[in-house]
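Model: Ready when you are.
Researcher: Fold this.
Model:
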Amino acid sequence: MTTHDDIRFGVLLSTDRYADESDGDVLARTVEVARFAEELGLDDLWLTEHHFLGASVNPSALGLAAYLLGKTHTVHVGTAVTVLPLHSPVHVAEQTALLDQLSGGRFVLGVGRGFPGVEYDVIGPGLASWRAGLAEPLDLTLATLNGEVTTGIAHGLPAPLRPSPAVRSLPRPPVYVAAGSPATTELAADRGLPLLLFYDKGPEAKAQMVAHYDARARAGGRPAPPWGHAFAVFTQVTESAERARRLMGNRARFILSLNNDPSRLAARPESVPPPVSPESVGTLTDRLLGTQPVGSVETCVERLVRHVSVSGCRRVMCQVEAAEKTGDVLRNLERLATEVFPAVRRAVGAVPGRGAV
């Protein structure tokens, strides 16, 4: 179990497609980066889930997690996130227990409700289930993992989870909740589950959410979660300010283009975002450059130390794939693992987090 003095560095693999890449190219790069991350001694791999987007090719965080757990030996693998309302919660719990057993306790389930896109009509029970939030499917997932689900027939016969979670993961494998609002933060705190926070939150905003979480937990008489809160950042070592701006400009353009993707607009035609303009790209680029660990080694260290120290989160999900060429991605990852992460640990007085969650 991670202690207060531990800090875990991981890679967030979002299977984004760059120019002229096939689906196979994207997935091959993902596997190569994942295996290299383990070779470098990183603690975690995190996988996203997106549906019907031309720009991202992984519709199953659980499926890719299973594959990467089979291709690795020591690194922990988590979903960031499994879009829970699109899945059967009981089946998610069953798959979680299965991956937990097969991997020897290396699987981490992260859940969220994602973006209100057309997938809620095509896969899920409709957009109303997105509006309803995570509480019901999350509680059913947790109840199944805790062995509390019944068949609901006759006298409520128990429906035992098979396989049961691995002994080292008892009482159950780690479950994280993606939070972007006070309501979801309170949901996680009420259930004693740690938070997953993403790029839209700077260090101070993360700290406010963690403080709100702590206050809610204290009010309910609940202890701190057994696993540290996690956050995602774009993380890129480059000695050139021009290159840093170009890379973050590309990311800004990519993020804004996703908001205009037809699969997302179809779900909310009444709230079409403005078209991607040079002004909007420039504004987001400036924001990313001002908050994300992108730039020289010294800048990356300073930004990561600030995120960790101010927010109190101890689990870092690094999006390392700003560059389009796989070789550049691997070189960036190597510099982070050998030059940046050790310096961050020294600065915050943390010990390496490799090993048990």
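Researcher: Now this one.
Model:
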Amino acid sequence: MRAGLIPLLSMLVALPALGGAALWRVYSPERARRVAVTVAALTLVLALGVLVLFQAGGAGMSGMSMVAILLATLLTLGLVAAGPRQMLDRGTLGALLLTESAALGFFCTQHLGLMLFFWVAMVLPAEVLISRRAKAQPEARALRTFRIYLLAGSLPLVAAVVLLGLPGWQSGAETPLGLSELLARGVPAPRQTAILALLMLAVAFRMAVVPFHSWLPVLLARGPFGAGLLMVNVHAGLYLLVRVAMPLLPEAWKAASPLLEGLGLFGALYGAVLALAQMDLRRTVGFLLVSQSGLMLAGLAERNTESIAGALLQSVAAAVPLTGLMLVVRAIEARTGTTDMTRLGGLVRRGPRMAALFFLLGVASLGFPGSMSFVGEDLLLHGILGAHPLVALPLLLTTAINGITFLRAFQRTFLGTPAHGQASVLDTVEDLLPRERIAALALCVLAFLGGILPGPLLRLREHEVSALAGPAASTGHAESGSHGPALASH
């Protein structure tokens, strides 16, 4: 790591935390929004500075960390800049900035104890915010669900960290929870299974993998704006698997891979079916996120170069357009007072830009040719087909169901005639404001630009992909120097 990188990383973590704390002294809603946007923009600039100084494979930093940092800062800026103003009071803005700070700390640190601290810190701002607002029944339900998730998703990780650090403490190691020292010391095979089970339980809750998913749709529908979306889309759970579970517990991971792959594919298909059954746009997006989490878990569990590269790419490919899609959904809610598809219809006449961006972001999230998700799903499919051809069927079925879900949502929301009794309300709807259009369009462009030029993003993490897949894995991606054979046709 270059000498200038450490202070830059410290500034990167501290800036949004200081900005979130400073908002408590800002009483004007408009000024609070300007402060939050400025802080989020400066944080993104710092992240780009880290990218400039970054050296792939350098000590203490990884390509996985770099991509996660860029994703967290980009999504936070989009949420605070383009979210509906009535949903972005200073409490919500502060919670978003504090969540961003905790996420960045999680991705920057190389100490497992600090990772645990930031893991818990990521969920605390939203929990505090919900607690203050939990007077109405929907908010009270969101609080109960979220608190259960907070405990269930954190206690197993605490236990796993204690088990991993215990040998180092007993031997008097200088940094018993340092990742490099843990890797050098290794974990005895008999203890790996129990530790992996604890880590997987924590990760399953954080990634909203079926059957530990129920908190996410509730939080997206009833919780504070952007908090649940940011926590899931920065993919801290996926990062924990790649940086801790897979390299530290290789024997246990190999033994558990068939079970985890089955769980991931089942969760992806189950989430897709639940998304199809929803009438609320917010819950629909929530279950699409659940479905994508299952696909990513299945890709990591397959343990070959293409499937791991596909899972890591899909973590970005789904997060970017689905965040943009939720921004459009919240814009619809702010204008109509509802996200119930049975009460909407015909919005394309009043909001053509809204309809166009909703459509483009939706198809980008579902693997339309030319999008980043298309490349990610193609790598996943190749990786799974190469090992277990029949197992790829749930993946194809999941993609098809998600496509039907999106087209149905678009038709009911934007096409046809307005719902009975809603025509007068829908006739007053305004199209997206400039700041909303810019943010949604920027996320849409990134989703398709990443599909046209996936090479730089793949190369940032090829070191992790090669190390996790092992020498026996297919060599296309890691040895290509570009996109690998699997991407040659894109």
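Researcher: Key takeaway?
Model: The radius of gyration is 22 Å.
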